[in-house]
Amino acid sequence: MTDRQDRIGRRRLLGACAAAAAAVCGASGAAGEPEGPDRLVEAGPMTMALTFDDGPSLVSTPEILATLRRYGVTATFFMIGANIEKYPQVARQVVGEGHRVGNHSWSHPAFEGLPAAQVRTEIERTNAAITRVGGRRPTLFRAPGGHFTPACMTVCAELGLRPVSWSVDPEDWSRPGTDAIVDRVLGAARTGSIVLNHDGCLSADHAPAPGSPCDRAQTAAALRRYLPRLVEAGYRFTVPGPP
Ligand SMILES: [Zn+2]
């Protein structure tokens, strides 16, 4: 399956899951629409959210933290439990610098067809890892690949986790070039945006070789360029979900 086909399938799945989750959980929107994962933040004009998935990683996460620190910006890091276990000191740094840590499963499996019991184990194990590194019990969950299956939505509801998707995807994971990531973020960002980035990778090497699949140097470099532009434009940054 191509990445494009996968993305199209994912969009269809998200719609189907939203309906299925509403049936399971009884959730419904104000206008009778079923609720799916959050795609936007609602925190007033010129407010948006930056999110970083698949970390922590030894090289790129600290670089990204340095940029966020420089501009006084708080972000959300959806961490993989197995990577927290590998790099607890980096996870502690993220927590210590005041960022929100969300749950992104333990091993980043494909959730389609995964029984609810396994989904629950993936999530609970990661919740425990996050609290072990000093983070508060997570309230936010992002499904691997954005595959919010009905089982996933049910388990999230049971565990008090808010499912969070995104509205701006620069596809930084595919390493399209720093210029492309900058252009895609700046071209799509607006009030309420949730921007998807990746500071790590499943089974990342300690120091991924430049250009290797887990190399996130472009993501870190792009942030150094687009964040000051967004700050200058007057954007403020929040985290998804209720305060
Ligand atoms: Zn991911």
Structure description:
By secondary structure, the chain is an alpha/beta fold. The protein has a single domain, classed as Glycoside hydrolase/deacetylase (TIM Barrel). It is built from eight helices and seven strands, in the order H-E-H-E-H-H-E-H-E-H-E-H-E-H-E. The chain has helices at residues 3-25, 60-70, 81-86, 88-96, 116-132, 150-159, 178-188, 217-232, and strands at 47-53, 76-79, 100-103, 140-141, 162-163, 194-198, 236-237. Strands 1, 2, 3, 6 and 7 form a five-stranded parallel beta sheet that branches. It has a two-stranded parallel sheet with strand order 4-5. The longest helix is centred in the first third of the chain and has 23 residues, at 3-25. The radius of gyration is 17 Å and the shape is globular. It starts with a helix and ends in a 6-residue tail after the last strand. Zinc ion is lined by residues 53-54, 104, 108, 144. Residues 53-54, 104, 108, 144 line the site of zinc ion.
Feature tags:
243 residues, alpha/beta, TIM Barrel, five-stranded parallel sheet, 8 helices, 7 strands, globular, binds zinc ion
In short:
This protein is α/β, with parallel strands linked by helices and 243 residues long. The chain has helices spanning 3-25, 60-70, 81-86, 88-96, 116-132, 150-159, 178-188, 217-232; strands spanning 47-53, 76-79, 100-103, 140-141, 162-163, 194-198, 236-237.
